Amino acid sequence: MADVNRGNRPLSPHLTIYRPQLTSMTSILTRITGNAMLVAALLIVWWFLAAATSAEAFDFINGLITSWFGDLVMFLSLLALWYHTLAGIRHLIWDTGHALDLQTAERLGWSILIGSVVLTIITAFII
Q: Where do transmembrane segments lie in this chain (predicted)?
């Protein structure tokens, strides 16, 4: 049986002394963007279903998606899509056993953050 009396040692790092690393934060953000894109996909499916059912239903959801709030949601969804794509490419690179040293991993982290913003702005202005 494990020794229950461990003295005054902390069991795990406390939030006040733990410094979040870029690689862990970008990994968490990858999971968040994946879930956020699911919400945007549901809105788009709702839009298609409303277009197939009735003019009143389509007018409602089309008004919602083309409003300032809908534009914001779609813009953020585009940002999430680019981020998630670039982070996926980074994970594919890591799966091959490359770019695992700390300096390269940090560079890749900053690259996907900056790259997703740049690609989002380019895509938003093209469309």
A: 28-49, 61-83, 108-126
Q: What is the 3-state secondary structure (H, E, C) of 72-119?
A: HHHHHHHHHHHHHHHHHHHHHHHHCCCCCCHHHHHHHHHHHHHHHHHH
Measure the CA–CA gap between 99 and 90, rounded to whole angstroms: 9
CATH hierarchy code of domain 22-126: 1.20.1300.10
Say which residues have a Cβ less than 8 Å from residue 107's Cβ, sequence separation at least 6.
none
SS3 breakdown of the chain: % helix, strand, coil, rounded to 5?
75, 0, 25
Q: Read off the pTM.
A: 0.81
Q: What is the pLDDT of residues 58-109, one digit of tens each?
A: 999 999 999 999 999 999 999 999 999 999 999 999 999 999 999 999 999 9
